[in-house]
Structures are given as C-alpha cells and as structure tokens.
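U., I forgot to send this yesterday:
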Amino acid sequence: MLAVSLLALLAWLYLLVFRGGFWRADQVLPAAQPPESFPPVAVIIPARDEAETIAKVVGAHQKSDYPGELRLFVCDDGSSDGTGELARGTEGPQQVEVLSVPPLKEGWSGKLHALDHGVKAATEAMPEAGWYLFTDADIKAAPSLLTKLVAAGERCDLSLVSVMARLDASGFWGRLLVPAFIYFFQKLYPFPLVNQAGGRVAAAAGGVVLIRPEALREIGGLAAMRDALIDDCTLAEKVKKAGARIGLYLSSDFAEAVSLRPNDSYEVMEKMVARSAYTQLRYNPVLLLGTLVGLALLYLVPPLAFLGLPFHGNGSVALLGLLAWGVMVVTYIPTLKRYGMKRRQALALPLAALLYGWFTWLSAWRTWQGRGGQWKGRSYASAE
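Result:
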C-alpha cells in the first residue's frame, strides 16, 4: 500500500508540473483587436429533432453583432418534431436557409453527414466566405461571440478556433459531474498544449468550431473523417497535422456560449459519456483496462489511503494519501470557480471519477453487446 500511495502522489505531482498547466483553466477566448475587415461567415447548424432548442439557438444568431456578412444554414437531418419549421419561423436580419439533409450515406456519422451537406450549400451560396462556424443546435451564442471568434482567428493567424460552451450544471448530478467533465477534458487535452504551434496535442469542442474553408479543403473536407464519432477532436487533429494553427478556449464569460441541454439527471450524464467513451479508447480492451486502473490510482487511492488510517494503521500511507488528495483538490478548484462552485466541492472529485469510470465501462460493455454509440435513434459504434 505504501508503494501504491507513493505512486499516486508522484503521478499527481507530474500532472501538476508537467501536463501543460491544464488545471489552471486560464485559456479563455482572447479579446483580440478587430481585423481591418470582417469576412463573410456561414453558420452551419446540424439539427435532428431539436424542437426544444432550435428557435432559441437560431434566434440568438439573429442577434449577432457581427459586422460582416452572415448567413445561417440549418441542416434538418430527418427531424420528426418540426425542427425545420421552427427554424424557418425565426425572425431577424440574417438570412436563414433550412436545408433538408438527404438520407444518411453508408459510412458516415449523422452529424458529419449533415454538416457536409451544409458546407456544400454554403460553398455554392457564399463562395467568398472566409469562415464556417460549425455549431450545435443546443448552443446559444451571445451576440458578441462570432465577432470575438473571427477577431481571434484573424489576429492570431488561426485556421480553427473553438470554444468550450458552458454546460448546464444544475441539480445534484450536474454539480457533481459537469465540472469534472470539463476538468477531465482539459487534462486529456491540455488547452495550452493544444494552442501551442507545432505541438502534437490537438482538440476542439464540437459545440462551437470556427474553421477557414481553405483549411477544411486542405484536409480533404469532412469526407476525410466521415465516420468519426468524436468529430471535433478528429477535425482539430487533421487541421493541426496539416501545419495550421488552432485555438481551443474556455468561454470568457458565462453567457458567451451556453448549452441549453439539461444535465440535471444521472441518466443524461451517463448517456453523454457512455456514448463515446469506448470510442475515445479506440475500442481497445487494453486501453480500457489501463484507463480504469489509472482512474483508480489517481482518484481512489489517495482518499482511501488517508481515510483508511484506522484500518491499515500506517501513518506514512495516510500522509502520502493526504498529500496526493491535496494536490488533486488544488488542481480542481480553478475549474470549479469557473462554474461558480465552492472550493469544498473539490473533495468530491474522487466520487465523480468513480462514476466516470463506471460510465466508461458501460460504454465498452454496450459496444460489445452491439448497442454502442447510440445517438438520436442511430447506432454507430463497433468494436470490430
């Protein structure tokens, strides 16, 4: 137990010092100086059965303060709840074109198929477009968001700019699991390393992705990643590998980009994580085992070593556990502060990690049972 506790502490010290400072949660969308001119932008929104949110989302884009030309393309992917009609019914100064996405092609994921249809329509309607904004049908944008995204892209010479939307963190499950989700994402893809030119780490947050059309063409378009389920990070990886610079940021304020999807129940959080966790591990049982062991070492060993002192009676083990738990808490606090939560909630990170380990196992189990990757009535994942 002494060796395991020491290993846990060393692992946390490594993450604290050598993992790109991911835990600082300080990579926010920069307030760049406006460019000399703002190029035309096509906002492309894939939507499948999004009646609850689509009007609010399109309405928010209608209120954009973007000074250049802006057109909205809503890609209605076989919705059965009137999503397309609701999008058409929004009022505002921006032109909204609702596209009927053709039946899903074999080998494509639904979202990428819809986005590709939108890109083709935007290319034809706006050949002069300087940027495409890929955004989800549940992400409500502040009026200033697009202007800030384009300014950052133009001034910082980026080919892809992405912002992590603020997720709903209401209710017991939302408070416990949503900040942890953001924390784990930052640990997996340290934003400072993502934003480092020429580095190997690449990622994006799929809810808000601004990309130059020429960068998309350079990688072969969306067809080059047609079957990707973790499409945001795949896109970012391909763009960065092609030699372009990318930027991934947290929202600079609470209202900049907000997800309207509620996360206040266990079922919602389980579905969100289990849908793609095993895909992230490339359907590899060895990586699955390593992930679960790693989660246990990092998040369960420290509190068990400390709180288990009355049972194991080893003061050195308890001290190592306390130190490791302390580092864990310190690294989690900045993310909690971004969600307006109290520092003491950092003590619950081991419980959140335990649940994420369970979700990851469920993701693998459902894939083995042929039920993986289910989303919007479609199933994609395969362990083959």
